[in-house]
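Hi again,

Forgot to attach this to my earlier email, sorry! This is the prediction with XIL bound. I've pasted everything inline since the attachment limit keeps bouncing my files.
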Amino acid sequence: MKKISMIALTLMMGAASVFAQGWGRPPVEDPTGYKDTYKDYFTVGVAVNINNVTNPDQIALIKKNFNSITAENDMKVVSLQPREGEWNWENADKIANFCRENGIPLRGHTLCWHSQFADWMFVDDKGNEVSKEVFYERLRTHIHTVVNRYKDIVYCWDVVNEAMIDGDGRPTRFQREAPSPYRQSRHFQLCGDEFIAKAFEFAHEADPNALLFYNDYNAADPAKRDRIYDMVKKMKDAGVPIHGIGMQGHYNIYDNPKWENFEAAIQKYSELVDNIHITELDMRINHEAGGQLQFSREGAALTDEIKKMQEDRYAEMFEIMRKYKKVIKNVTFWNLGDRDSWLGARNYPLLWDENYEVKNVYYVVRDFKKNKKK
Ligand code: XIL
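Structure tokens for the complex follow:
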């Protein structure tokens, strides 16, 4: 009798545990993602490549954690229209359709940038430079075509990217005049700063509902911050439709940026705009920083000390961003896992490692409420 009831008990316990876990399924993983723990603060996004939105495991990470997506490269000018009238929609459409199917809004990136641009816009058939009117007509066609195609799913655009110069902006021993605050791009050389206003006007004509951003790196650096501020102020005073500033956020675990500069920049920009997005966040483990396309792919060894430094820096940064939730409306990581990072996997800048295994820093940022109580 005793034996029979033991057997019955064991069977009942087994059934109860199968019931709790779902028939034949592994135990249910914690479904809480960034989009949940940050829902009272800002949306959290990720820049994706085509693999990220094709591979089922990576798709699961994205759907769990993010409520904003940026195409890392596939919506840049050179990707979409490498030659006049030759449109490559395939990858951009795939990403947009992924967003449509999963109800994740898309951050458009980018309509006018000196890099990954379409240099054909500057020259005629014979290779001679065209007038700025011809350039504007081409840029307008590009912007209208792209913005119109994705206006159902894109909620904001990085209209102009990286138009300001680097450095501290002070005259040097060799150059007595202070350098121009603007990057000496082909766009600038042909049109002066007018091209910035034009790009915003074209985007606004195409989609009056989209939020339009100026986006740049080193935007917390005081000298560059002031240049960006002055440029955006000039645009706003002239009635140009510009609604937000994107601070790219290619940072490091040491001292770039200094948090007081980061905070001062947020405060200063919020005098001008209601929307600040941290558009391209990564935290590399060497001493470099910024969005310049030259960088070292070799990081340091990933010791426990370095991991802890990265966790602390991310935690400090998110604490500041939460404090400014009124104006910071989105924070986007630049890439999904370290494997995808444009900096190379040896800089370990992200939340998942090169095999998409979650890193401790993921929890440090996600579970800030629990961490605080400890
Ligand atoms: C980077 C991409 O991540 C790389 O894959 C590509 O080779 C170069 O561009 N600032 C920007 C982004 O605005 O578009 C850049 O993305 C990184 C710096």
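The radius of gyration is 24 Å. Residues 95 and 122 are 29 Å apart (CA to CA).

That should be everything now.

G.
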